[in-house]
């Protein structure tokens, strides 16, 4: 049995103190296996972004344990956390509006691979093909639609061959059809590549494409049946 790519064990994150203390994560436990794509849904302020930040080695919890690809990351230095992100984690953001505007789609992937200093088993061309963007390889972000930019954002997140893919509200800027396509693509890539995917969203329509769904309310996570 392989270790889950992500384990959160009774993780707590709080902000502030005394009367104004907020428990952003209030004892959250979660395991995500390789090849599984799960959704976390919840209202604004329920702790979704905090959960992604913890899983993404960007925030250290006040207590509890976090393991990425079998390695406990609580107590690591900032430098070590950066290594964990580089070696194991891919991030997909809300609208992929953060793609450098001067670079063609193909070069976006090349830049990402160089920054990471590593590359998964798929070439850039294979990645572009997988996300249905081969025909746009020479396009710059300004000439791509929102859905197309999101596809490049997904390919870029997969460049290093991550164990864990963290996805923050990927459909927020897309129409319905595009939203379904993007989430279907994310699920497919996780299954195909054996990547553990975690998507936070409040788009209830697209969660049908996910293997498991968890509800987040007031910093607590509950699995749906
Ligand atoms: P979501 O992504 O579901 O909207 P967040 O994880 O952003 O929720 O926030 C969870 C709770 O923690 C909210 O009450 C929010 O106001 C609070 N919070 C988040 N980040 C900070 C911070 N840096 N300082 C203080 N409070 C924060
Ligand atoms: Mg958020």
Automatic annotation (TrEMBL):
Against PROSITE patterns, the record matches this protein to: ABC_TRANSPORTER_1, ABC_TRANSPORTER_2
Q: What GO cellular component is one of the record's annotations? A: plasma membrane
Q: Which domain of life is it from?
A: Bacteria
Pfam families (UniProt xref):
ABC_tran
Query: Which residue intervals define the domain ABC transporter in the entry?
Result: 6-225
Q: Which UniProt keywords apply?
A: ATP-binding, Nucleotide-binding, Transport
Recorded hits in CDD domains, A to Z, give: ABC_MJ0796_LolCDE_FtsE
List GO molecular-function terms, semicolon-separated: ATP binding; ATP hydrolysis activity; transmembrane transporter activity
Q: Which PANTHER family match?
A: ABC TRANSPORTER RELATED (PTHR24220:SF685), IMPORT ATP-BINDING PROTEIN (PTHR24220)
Query: What's this protein's name?
Result: ABC transporter ATP-binding protein
**Species, as recorded:** Corynebacterium gallinarum
